User: What shape does this take?
Amino acid sequence: MREWRVVWSRAVLLSIMQPMTLAELERKVEELRAAWRAALAEVTDAEALEAARIRFLGRKGHLTRLLSSLKEFPPQERPHAGRILNQLKREISQAIEEKGREIEQREWERRLAAERYDFTLPGKWRPLGHLHPLTQVRLEIEDIFMRMGFDVASGPEVEDDYHNFEALNIPEDHPARDEWDSFYIDDTHLLRTHTSPVQIRVMKSRKPPVRIICPGRCYRRDTPDATHSPVFHQVELLWVERGLTMAHLKWIIEEFVRRFFGPGYEMRFSADFFPFTEPSAQVHIRREGGPWLEIMGAGMVDPAVLT
Assistant: This one.
């Protein structure tokens, strides 16, 4: 019995030491192909696919060990043996790529189903915030005057010297032209110092009667404090029509004060001077017994501006 075991062991040793034949290689390749297909059929996720790849194509994988046996073949048989093994390697690699795409697509579909949105459901209400206080005031003023029959006009914030000064009867030696009062861009252009240039543009484009207000930003070289700012907002009003008097102007302003500030305010006019109006006035308001507050300048459009 002991001698039989020795003979069997020697036979096994001899078979291992003998080089593999092409027929044996083809048989092992078919066995490996069948094993790969069986393993691939059991793969359901990316982790299992990676484990199968390592098992067959890893550094110590089944196919890698077969590829290392190429050196045992005679030189004339190695090309054929290499083609057989490389064909299987390509099949496995291609199958891994296809399976990977299939798993990825299946995972994507699963996520889509889990994260599906019902677009027929009502949306969630989100507060939109509020308008800026300056915008709220401007809109309120526009509404007041539009209810009285005025249109809203606008113009460029970068003006030329003609529209900002000359057309408004402001001579070259007027202090408002000083560079310390105005933001000049070049010799003939500046940031508008008031919204009055819009009046000129409107009067050149329309025939009377004209009823407009011109709200907008203005720019002057002022030091910021409680009543001054280098950027401020102004609302200009222009009414051009036959038969108008200071009484019409006073009525318009009284109506605005009543609608904007509310009841209980006194109003007064005091004489003033503006190059583009004649006569000119300052308008003050106050609560009964309180201090007077200047709110605007006003006047009848100077004939020099109209011509």
User: Anything to note?
Assistant: DSSP finds ten helices and eight strands in the chain.
